[in-house]
Each structure stands twice: as structure tokens, then as C-alpha cells.
Amino acid sequence: xxxxxxxxxxxxxxxxxxxxxxxxxxxxxxxxxxxxxxxxxxxxxxxxxxxxxxxxxxxxxxxxxxxxxxxxxxxxxxxxxxxxxxxxxxxxxxxxxxxxxxxxxxxxxxxxxxxxxxxxxxxxxxxxxxxxxxxxxxxxxxxxxxxxxxxxxxxxxxxxxxxxxxxxxxxxxxxxxxxxxxxxxxxxxxxxxxxxxxxxxxxxxxxxxxxxxxxxxxxxx
Length: 221
Fold this sequence. Notes:
Layout: H1 10-34, H2 41-48, H3 52-58, H4 62-73, H5 75-85, H6 92-107, H7 110-122, H8 127-154, H9 163-182, H10 194-209
Helix pairs in contact: 1-2, 1-4, 2-3, 4-7, 4-8, 5-6, 5-8, 6-10, 8-9, 9-10
């Protein structure tokens, strides 16, 4: 009898490699349906077709499952943003617009936007979720945005604003957009409509942030 995945053949190995994603899929579905606090590991195991011990083989806790969801669903978005931001020289508005539009497309996926929504919903009860989200996403992306803003000021594209505070003006409306819908149930008639929201946000942001020398107003399109 074969003792290891390598001895059991490629079909078994493919199945074993797919298990963590199957567990994460089951966890995300249940977190959406029942909430993080009300979901038990037993429920996730049953949905994934595993024993409880089988879930713990891949993820030692529910918090590890949320971290796995962030790393699978949101960390790649952060990676894409960092790739665009890295070493960029020139008008920072072009990069900010590109990153926010990319973000709007990714967050239009219901299972992607579900992850920050779960975190926002549960963060008061489970503050460690906020620390994990900060470590995996915010602490990686925010310094790169701050450098971009400083360079834009130095090169005369932006007014001499406070880079650290300006980050809040750039990303704050998107976070508030989710919070208003998730916490207060205030949603535009056509849903979260991230793409339209980002276009509107960019126009307001850049008309206020841009250096006035040319007198040219920014268009997000």
C-alpha cells in the first residue's frame, strides 16, 4: 500500500494540493452566510468534505483561515499595486488612478470584497483580525504610496500637502464606501458600484490635489 502522496500518483497529489483552497472556499462561504464568530471549524470541515482534524492539518485556527483568505484574495492585489508603484517616476496621479481602477475591478468580485467586509464586521470582537490585515496589506502598500506622493510634490505635480494625511484622502473613501454598506446598510441604488465610485473619487481628489500651475483640471477618464 502506498504510504506517501508521491507514491500514490499524480491524481492523488493534485487532490492533496487542492485541499487548502477547498477548505478556504468552504470557510469563506460559511463566513459570508453565518459570520466569523458563529462559524465552527466543524462546519467548515463538513462543507469541505473533511474531518475537523483534516482542516487543522492545513489551518490551525479560524484566525489562520481568515489569514489564508487574505493571502489568497487580497495579498495578490497588494502585490499588483506594489509592482506598479515600485520605482515610478513622473506624474503620480497616473499611477494612483491606475491602482484605484485596478482595485475597483478586483473588488467587484463578490468573493473578494467579502473578505474585507468580514474583517470590518468582526474587528471589534476580534481585533487580531485588524492587526493581521494591517500586516498583510496596509503595512506593505501605504509606505509605497507615501513615497509616491512625496516624489510628486518634489517634482511639482502635486501641491505641498502632508503625504501621510493625504494617504487617508486617497484610500479613505473606498474604505468608508464599504463600511457604510456593511455596517450601516447605506448602499447606492446599483450596489457598491466600485468602478463608478472610483471614477467619481478621482475627479474630486485630483482637482483638489493637483498643483495649480497649468490651471488644467484632472479628468479620470
